[in-house]
Amino acid sequence: MTGTIHSLWTTAADSATPLDKIPTPKIEYAQLSPVLIVFGAAVLGILVEALLPRRSRYIAQLGVSVTGLAAAFAAIVALAADGYASAKSHIAAMGAVAVDGPALFLQGTIVLVALVAAFTFAERRLDPLAHGRRVDSFAAQGSTVPGSEQEKRAVRAGFTTTEVFPLLLFAVGGMMIFPAANDLLTLFVSLEVFSLPLYLLCALARRHRLLSQEAAVKYFLLGAFSSAILLFGVALLYGYAGTISYGGIADVISGTAKMTPALANTTANDSLLLIGGAMVVVGLLFKVAAVPFHMWTPDVYQGAPTPVTGFMAAATKVAAFGALLRLLYVVLPGIRWDWRPVMWGVAIATMVIGAIIAVTQTDVKRLLAYSSIAHAGFILAGVIALSPDGVSSVLFYLAAYSFVTLGAFAVVTLVRDAGGEATHLSRWAGLGRRSPLVAAVFAVFLLAFAGIPLTSGFAGKFAVFKAAAQGGAVPLVIIGVISSAIAAFFYIRVIVLMFFSEPQPGGPSVAVPSALTSTAIAAGVAVTLALGVAPQYFLDLAGKASVFVR
Amino acid sequence: MNPINYLYLSALLFTIGGAGVLVRRNAIIVFMCVELMLNACNLAFVTFARLHGNLDGQIIAFFTMVVAAAEVVVGLAIIVTFFRSRHSASVDDASLMKL
Amino acid sequence: MNTYVPILVLGALAAGFAIFSVDMARRTGPKRYNRAKLDAYECGIEPTPQPAGGGRFPIKYYLTAMLFIVFDIEIVFLYPWAVSFDALGLFGLVEMLLFVLTVFVAYAYVWRRGGLEWD
């Protein structure tokens, strides 16, 4: 054993001048520009917070966020048009970040979702005026104790937490790297970069601060726990392969890597690989809210400020599924016979449990949370297919699902009573009679969740199940269709409740939003219908972008 | 000494941390257990770096330290605001939302 | 072994000097005790009284400690860079400047928003 151990210090002493041998790293700034633009905008946002007077911060932050996200999207489109999504796709930044089809497609989705989410973050017409000032969904001052004199002073002074915009941008930047990460260290760091701002955003609700803080504590403790598990998995995989790059580990698994004595020693036993891979996958399954790692989802979705919930539910899922796809397709295809049965079990449990528990929910936000769990199960079915069709169907499903989710949560912010948002389902009874437009829009989103034809949800589910069936997972598809039927039951129930029951006396009112939230909801409806009516163009787009670079 | 022993120690520390997260009730203690898990990862990284004779593991340990520090700052901020509004840091008191 | 003799001699001299000074001060110095001398030693500042209610500290400590940790830990990246500064050349310098600049943005935020004020 000891003979195989290299001593770093003796090898360093052997070579005369080891320090001169560091090759200068090369960073392809142009290919990383989408991420760099978003992070630059976030840093600019911090400077805005530091240097501008309080009253001009809101408009400046909104401008910086929207400009930054739009510029990042333009950069992504330019890269894709330049062929980086197909022919020129390669690995940038010394092996740390992949620039390829899936990465660019998911980054584009995340940036668009974030752009729409920034509008809902900026909405200031829903809450009643606080001391003559328009306020948004976020706490006047995050550090104050709810109900304290200090908080009242902050509200009177008209404070607002405009830091939510830089936090949003940092989260977006992390999410953009996450599906593009091409080594395990980048994976871990980007996971933390997008998780930490989300933990903070969860704690910042203006109404129901106690719920919001509780959600943040739960999300943080469980999130930190899961990322520690992921990190230990990274350590074990590194121990197995002696490298953290995706391609390097895949080479070691397939046996094509150059054997060294140390490598022969660590690869002699597969337990490092199996346990390490399992722990990394568990960390990712936590982020996509797959059963049995879903326990945080309902509480966090319910407690977080609704615009944050919408963003988190949509964008986190896109980023985490992207990372899961790349890990399973690039690093671990060599042990697919080991992970596929397990993922089968996870997918089945996620679909069934998500759909069944959703039926019993009485709160709109919790209902949407369980529905997002069920959808994670459907997407997992596409992941398991392990084929190019599987990748493209998952990409399409993620794009479709994220806009539906964002729109649905934006509608939830509109239905309000004296205590803020009225999220209890009984309060939504008869909404269709009082405000037909809002109820109709919400019905469109629910139908898309249920997978009714002519909505994006149908096209997505069809593509995913088709890919899974072709991949040999027919029983999985059957269970998926059954759980979609169960899920459709509770979506339809909400629609029936809205349109066919008597409005409650003293029920909630529907706030008239500004152009910001209206734009967000309109974008959601437009994408839902466009992807539902003419899915082929977008499926082709996803199909073209479905090859991972190695 | 055989480096494998450090891996055993690392796994042991990780398990202690994981068990602590699951059984302890004070949010601060739970959080300290998470930090213990991260440190166990660091030990595994540097041990593997020595086994393989490359520096990757040592570099990752640096990154883990920085990430852990950022996590401490964010986490304590959240736990402190939680504590100030409830005068308790017990995770059992975080039950406004039903399970 | 010979190379270590000067160090041993230096150590012995230092220890001898320390013992000698303490002993001389004790024998010859005046002994006038007052409140400040009997207080707990806290790096030269006024000792902080034990807070009421069983050992809770004001939140200001938390803020300062957190800021310290965040900015302190950045050194972890500066140190390896400084060691291989020559080999990395201009590229390393530019990247490290960008990194330090980002840290300074955070510093500017903390400073302007009153995070460094004790009261």
From TrEMBL, chain A:
The chain crosses the membrane at residues 29-52, 59-81, 101-122, 157-178, 217-241, 272-296, 308-329, 341-360, 367-388, 394-415, 436-456, 476-500, 512-534. It is an enzyme of class 7 (translocase). Keywords: Cell membrane, Membrane, NAD, Oxidoreductase, Quinone, Translocase, Transmembrane, Transmembrane helix, Transport. It catalyses: a quinone + NADH + 5 H(+)(in) = a quinol + NAD(+) + 4 H(+)(out). Residues 181-486 form the NADH:quinone oxidoreductase/Mrp antiporter transmembrane domain. Belongs to the complex I subunit 2 family. This is NADH-quinone oxidoreductase subunit N. It comes from Streptantibioticus ferralitis.
From TrEMBL, chain B:
The keyword NADP does not apply. Its main location: membrane. It is an enzyme of class 7 (translocase). It is found in: Cell membrane; Membrane. It is a multi-pass membrane protein. Signal peptide: none annotated. The chain crosses the membrane at residues 6-23, 28-48, 60-83. It holds the Pfam family Oxidored_q2. NDH-1 shuttles electrons from NADH, via FMN and iron-sulfur (Fe-S) centers, to quinones in the respiratory chain. The immediate electron acceptor for the enzyme in this species is believed to be a menaquinone. Couples the redox reaction to proton translocation (for every two electrons transferred, four hydrogen ions are translocated across the cytoplasmic membrane), and thus conserves the redox energy in a proton gradient. NCBIfam families: PRK05715.1-2, PRK05715.1-5. HAMAP family: NDH1_NuoK (MF_01456). This is NADH-quinone oxidoreductase subunit K. It comes from Streptantibioticus ferralitis.
Automatic annotation (TrEMBL), chain C:
This is NADH-quinone oxidoreductase subunit A. NDH-1 is composed of 14 different subunits. Subunits NuoA, H, J, K, L, M, N constitute the membrane sector of the complex. HAMAP family: NDH1_NuoA. GO terms for molecular function: NADH dehydrogenase (quinone) (non-electrogenic) activity. It is an enzyme of class 7 (translocase). Keywords: Cell membrane, Membrane, NAD, Oxidoreductase, Quinone, Translocase, Transmembrane, Transmembrane helix, Transport. It is a multi-pass membrane protein. The keyword Oxidoreductase applies. Gene3D superfamilies: NADH:ubiquinone/plastoquinone oxidoreductase, chain 3.
